[in-house]
Amino acid sequence: MKLALQEARKAGERGEVPVGAVIVDVSGAIIGTAGNSSIADHDPAGHAEMAAMRIAGKNLENYRLLKTTMYVTIEPCVMCAGAMIHARIGRLVYGASDPKAGGVVSRYQIGGDSKLNHQMQVEGGLLADECAELLTSFFKKKRG
After folding, report:
1. What is the pLDDT of residues 25-41, one digit of tens each?
2. Catalytic residue among 7, 16, 49, 75
3. Residue 5 burial (CB < 10 Å; 0-12/13-18/19+)?
4. Strand 69-74 relative to strand 91-96: parallel, antiparallel, unpaired?
5. pLDDT in tens, 3-30
6. How far apart, in Å, are the Cα atoms of 105 and each of 41, 84, 138?
7. Does 130 participate in catalysis according to the annotation?
């Protein structure tokens, strides 16, 4: 999660919403890292999770990210949670909850929906205060 926070800080410095994601394989090797890039890339799918999955897929030469763990600084949105299901991410660990748009616990429970063809293990709250503070301070500066 510390590396995801570093990616989030870099995104914030670029003027993006400070969210970072890291994907590791079963051995713990890092296979994808990214921060948000929606603004710079003019891409509504430019979320950190989406970019990290693209990088991990290229590194593995496979669109299936079986037995991987994604660490992300905020609870993923519905779009990212859906992509994680399609990629077959095995485990998601997130920092801060997102009560407005959370796609895995807070608003929707996509990661554990038994109607879908894949479920992932979901754990929230890792370095939650630090992750939340990064977002809160970013938006205070933006609005201030």
Report:
1. 999 999 999 999 999 99
2. 49
3. buried
4. parallel
5. 999 999 999 999 999 999 999 999 999 9
6. 28, 14, 23
7. no
End-to-end, the C-alpha distance of the chain in Å comes to 28
Cβ distance 46 to 33 under 8 Å?
Answer: no
Tell me the DSSP string of 60-123. HTSS--TT-EEEEEE---HHHHHHHHHHT--EEEEEE--TTT-TTTTS--GGG-TTSS---EEE
Q: How far is CA 92 from CA 42, 89, 104, 134, in A?
A: 26, 7, 9, 20
Task: Determine how β-strand 30-35 pairs with β-strand 69-74.
Answer: unpaired
Provide the token pair at 50. 């989406």
Q: Which positions of the chain have pLDDT values less than 70?
A: none
For Cα atoms 143, 77, 116, give the angle at the middle one, nearest 5 degrees.
170
User: Rounded to whole angstroms, what are the CA distances from 103 to 5, 12, 80, 122?
Assistant: 20, 22, 8, 11
Task: For residue 80, give the nearest of 142, 19, 129 by alpha carbon.
Answer: 19
| Residue 91: closest CA among 23, 27, 4, 2 | 23
